[in-house]
From TrEMBL:
Belongs to the TDD superfamily. DTWD2 family. It comes from Agaribacter marinus. This is tRNA-uridine aminocarboxypropyltransferase. Residues 1-171 form the DTW domain. One of its GO terms (molecular function) is tRNA-uridine aminocarboxypropyltransferase activity. Its EC number is 2.5.1.25. It is an enzyme of class 2 (transferase). GO terms for biological process: tRNA processing. PANTHER family: TRNA-URIDINE AMINOCARBOXYPROPYLTRANSFERASE 2 (PTHR21392). The keyword Iron does not apply. The keyword DNA-binding does not apply. InterPro entries: DTW, DTWD2/TAPT. Keywords: S-adenosyl-L-methionine, Transferase, tRNA processing.
Length: 172
């Protein structure tokens, strides 16, 4: 879910996600009505929100649970894995992401994860106060790696390309 002010940024990492992961969908808006299509395809049983809130749990512990569930015959345990069918990330500045979170109470009913041990941010062409504040692309790469053991390098390579391009052409 992308804040409208993010769409025109030349340093927009969500746009790269769509290029690397063809089945990714970017919904742009601010209010619940802007995300009607997202709401139709997601629910509390099949969707996980990647956003640090009072309701979120560490993604690293979810990964541990998923490992135990894989070989289990317990239906309740297997149901936990369904919550990772869709991932939602909030794209924008921290203030914009918070505004999306506040304006869309339907997100509050989803399973949510935050990062206890995020990687150091590589996306340094935009300012951040802390080294663990990741771009949307970095947050997705980390989530896919932790939850599914999907190789994050294609996303990381796209980010490195954006960074290289930006640094080459932004110098006076």
């Amino acid at each position: 879910m992308q804040h409208p002010k993010e769409t025109g940024h030349s340093k927009n990492t969500a746009k790269l996600i769509g290029l690397v992961i063809p089945n990714a969908t970017i919904y742009v808006g601010h209010l619940p009505a802007d995300f009607d299509n997202a709401q139709k395809h997601t629910n509390a049983l099949n969707t996980t929100l990647i956003y640090p809130s009072a309701l979120s749990t560490p993604i690293e512990s979810a990964s541990t649970i998923l490992k135990h569930v894989e070989g289990s015959k317990d239906k309740a345990l297997k149901a936990l894995t369904l919550a990772h069918e869709h991932l939602i990330l909030l794209d924008g500045s921290w203030r914009q992401a918070y505004a999306l979170w506040q304006s869309n109470p339907w997100l509050h009913g989803l399973q949510a994860h935050h990062f206890d041990t995020p990687p150091n941010r590589q996306y340094d062409i935009r300012r951040s106060k802390k080294n663990h504040q990741l771009s949307t692309l970095e947050a997705l790469a980390y989530s896919l790696d932790v939850l599914y053991k999907i190789d994050p390098r294609p996303l990381q390579n796209a980010l490195a390309g954006l960074k290289s391009h930006w640094l080459t052409y932004s110098k006076p």
